[in-house]
Amino acid sequence: MDARTLLLQQWASCLDKEDWFPPLEKVLENITFEQAIWKPADGTMNSIWELMCHLLFYEKRFLLRFLGETENEPQAENNNDTFRLPTETLENWKETKQECFYVHRELEKLLATSEHEDLYRQVPGEDHSLLLELKSLAMHDAYHIGQIVLLSKMQGAWAGKRSF
Hints:
CATH class: Mainly Alpha
Largest sheet: none
Number of helices: 7
Protein name: DinB-like domain-containing protein
Order of helices and strands: HHHHHHH
Organism: Gottfriedia solisilvae
Pfam families: DinB_2
InterPro entries: DinB-like, DinB/YfiT-like
Oligomer: single chain
Domain DinB-like: 24-148
Protein backbone atom coordinates (compact mmCIF):
# COMPACT_ATOMS: atom_id res chain seq x y z
CA MET A 1 0.00 0.00 0.00
CA ASP A 2 1.40 3.39 -0.93
CA ALA A 3 1.47 6.46 1.33
CA ARG A 4 -1.35 8.22 -0.54
CA THR A 5 -3.73 5.27 -0.16
CA LEU A 6 -2.94 4.90 3.52
CA LEU A 7 -3.42 8.61 4.14
CA LEU A 8 -6.68 8.69 2.17
CA GLN A 9 -8.01 5.96 4.45
CA GLN A 10 -6.95 7.88 7.57
CA TRP A 11 -8.38 11.13 6.21
CA ALA A 12 -11.74 9.47 5.44
CA SER A 13 -11.81 7.94 8.95
CA CYS A 14 -11.76 11.43 10.40
CA LEU A 15 -14.82 12.61 8.47
CA ASP A 16 -17.19 9.93 7.29
CA LYS A 17 -15.84 6.37 7.42
CA GLU A 18 -16.18 4.32 10.59
CA ASP A 19 -12.90 2.92 11.91
CA TRP A 20 -11.36 2.68 15.39
CA PHE A 21 -13.05 5.93 16.38
CA PRO A 22 -16.28 7.53 15.18
CA PRO A 23 -16.01 9.90 12.21
CA LEU A 24 -16.79 13.57 12.74
CA GLU A 25 -19.97 13.60 10.65
CA LYS A 26 -21.45 10.82 12.81
CA VAL A 27 -20.30 12.43 16.05
CA LEU A 28 -21.98 15.74 15.16
CA GLU A 29 -25.07 14.22 13.58
CA ASN A 30 -27.45 14.96 16.47
CA ILE A 31 -25.56 17.68 18.34
CA THR A 32 -27.90 20.59 19.00
CA PHE A 33 -26.91 24.24 19.08
CA GLU A 34 -27.16 24.20 22.89
CA GLN A 35 -24.91 21.15 23.12
CA ALA A 36 -22.44 22.73 20.69
CA ILE A 37 -21.89 25.79 22.91
CA TRP A 38 -21.99 23.94 26.25
CA LYS A 39 -18.86 23.84 28.43
CA PRO A 40 -18.23 22.07 31.74
CA ALA A 41 -18.75 24.39 34.71
CA ASP A 42 -15.07 24.30 35.67
CA GLY A 43 -14.16 26.02 32.39
CA THR A 44 -11.26 23.68 31.64
CA MET A 45 -12.49 22.51 28.23
CA ASN A 46 -13.51 24.14 24.99
CA SER A 47 -17.03 23.66 23.67
CA ILE A 48 -17.79 21.36 20.74
CA TRP A 49 -18.28 24.40 18.52
CA GLU A 50 -14.98 25.93 19.63
CA LEU A 51 -13.24 22.66 18.77
CA MET A 52 -14.88 22.71 15.35
CA CYS A 53 -13.65 26.28 14.75
CA HIS A 54 -10.16 25.15 15.72
CA LEU A 55 -10.24 22.20 13.30
CA LEU A 56 -11.61 24.41 10.55
CA PHE A 57 -8.95 27.07 11.10
CA TYR A 58 -6.03 24.71 10.54
CA GLU A 59 -7.57 22.76 7.68
CA LYS A 60 -8.69 25.90 5.84
CA ARG A 61 -5.34 27.61 6.37
CA PHE A 62 -3.50 24.63 4.94
CA LEU A 63 -5.88 24.28 1.98
CA LEU A 64 -5.43 27.93 1.03
CA ARG A 65 -1.66 27.72 1.43
CA PHE A 66 -1.50 24.64 -0.76
CA LEU A 67 -3.59 26.44 -3.40
CA GLY A 68 -1.35 29.51 -3.15
CA GLU A 69 -4.20 31.69 -1.84
CA THR A 70 -2.42 32.90 1.28
CA GLU A 71 -4.09 36.31 1.16
CA ASN A 72 -7.40 34.63 2.05
CA GLU A 73 -6.18 32.33 4.79
CA PRO A 74 -7.62 32.70 8.31
CA GLN A 75 -5.51 34.62 10.79
CA ALA A 76 -4.89 34.12 14.51
CA GLU A 77 -2.44 35.72 16.91
CA ASN A 78 -1.97 32.40 18.68
CA ASN A 79 -3.43 28.91 18.97
CA ASN A 80 -6.02 30.02 21.56
CA ASP A 81 -7.49 32.42 19.01
CA THR A 82 -8.26 29.50 16.67
CA PHE A 83 -11.05 28.42 19.03
CA ARG A 84 -12.93 31.73 18.56
CA LEU A 85 -16.61 31.46 17.76
CA PRO A 86 -18.55 33.55 15.29
CA THR A 87 -21.75 35.11 16.60
CA GLU A 88 -23.56 32.33 18.45
CA THR A 89 -26.56 31.57 16.28
CA LEU A 90 -28.00 28.30 15.05
CA GLU A 91 -27.29 29.34 11.46
CA ASN A 92 -23.62 30.03 12.24
CA TRP A 93 -23.31 26.65 14.00
CA LYS A 94 -24.68 24.93 10.89
CA GLU A 95 -22.36 26.96 8.65
CA THR A 96 -19.31 26.08 10.74
CA LYS A 97 -20.10 22.36 10.44
CA GLN A 98 -20.75 22.54 6.71
CA GLU A 99 -17.61 24.58 6.02
CA CYS A 100 -15.53 22.17 8.07
CA PHE A 101 -16.90 19.18 6.14
CA TYR A 102 -16.40 21.00 2.82
CA VAL A 103 -12.77 21.96 3.54
CA HIS A 104 -12.01 18.43 4.73
CA ARG A 105 -13.39 17.02 1.47
CA GLU A 106 -11.45 19.55 -0.61
CA LEU A 107 -8.23 18.48 1.10
CA GLU A 108 -9.16 14.86 0.40
CA LYS A 109 -9.64 15.70 -3.30
CA LEU A 110 -6.24 17.40 -3.38
CA LEU A 111 -4.62 14.36 -1.87
CA ALA A 112 -6.38 12.01 -4.27
CA THR A 113 -5.60 14.00 -7.42
CA SER A 114 -2.18 15.53 -6.74
CA GLU A 115 0.76 14.39 -8.79
CA HIS A 116 3.55 12.59 -6.98
CA GLU A 117 5.79 15.68 -6.97
CA ASP A 118 2.98 17.80 -5.46
CA LEU A 119 2.56 15.33 -2.61
CA TYR A 120 6.18 15.84 -1.60
CA ARG A 121 6.80 19.51 -2.43
CA GLN A 122 7.06 22.02 0.39
CA VAL A 123 3.86 24.00 0.74
CA PRO A 124 4.17 27.81 0.98
CA GLY A 125 4.12 28.90 4.62
CA GLU A 126 4.81 25.35 5.84
CA ASP A 127 8.03 23.50 6.48
CA HIS A 128 6.79 20.21 5.06
CA SER A 129 4.84 18.58 2.23
CA LEU A 130 1.14 18.04 1.53
CA LEU A 131 1.52 14.40 2.52
CA LEU A 132 3.12 15.14 5.89
CA GLU A 133 0.74 17.99 6.70
CA LEU A 134 -2.35 15.89 5.99
CA LYS A 135 -0.95 13.08 8.12
CA SER A 136 -0.51 15.54 10.95
CA LEU A 137 -3.95 17.08 10.42
CA ALA A 138 -5.57 13.61 10.46
CA MET A 139 -3.98 12.87 13.84
CA HIS A 140 -5.02 16.33 15.07
CA ASP A 141 -8.61 15.70 13.93
CA ALA A 142 -8.72 12.29 15.64
CA TYR A 143 -7.53 13.83 18.91
CA HIS A 144 -10.19 16.55 18.86
CA ILE A 145 -12.91 14.15 17.70
CA GLY A 146 -12.19 12.27 20.92
CA GLN A 147 -12.70 15.49 22.89
CA ILE A 148 -15.99 16.11 21.08
CA VAL A 149 -17.16 12.59 21.95
CA LEU A 150 -16.21 13.19 25.60
CA LEU A 151 -18.15 16.47 25.68
CA SER A 152 -21.13 14.69 24.12
CA LYS A 153 -20.97 11.98 26.77
CA MET A 154 -20.69 14.56 29.56
CA GLN A 155 -23.96 16.08 28.33
CA GLY A 156 -25.74 12.76 27.92
CA ALA A 157 -25.91 13.35 24.17
CA TRP A 158 -24.00 10.22 23.23
CA ALA A 159 -26.14 7.24 22.30
CA GLY A 160 -25.89 4.29 24.67
CA LYS A 161 -25.33 1.83 21.85
CA ARG A 162 -23.48 2.73 18.68
CA SER A 163 -22.01 0.74 15.84
CA PHE A 164 -18.55 2.10 16.68
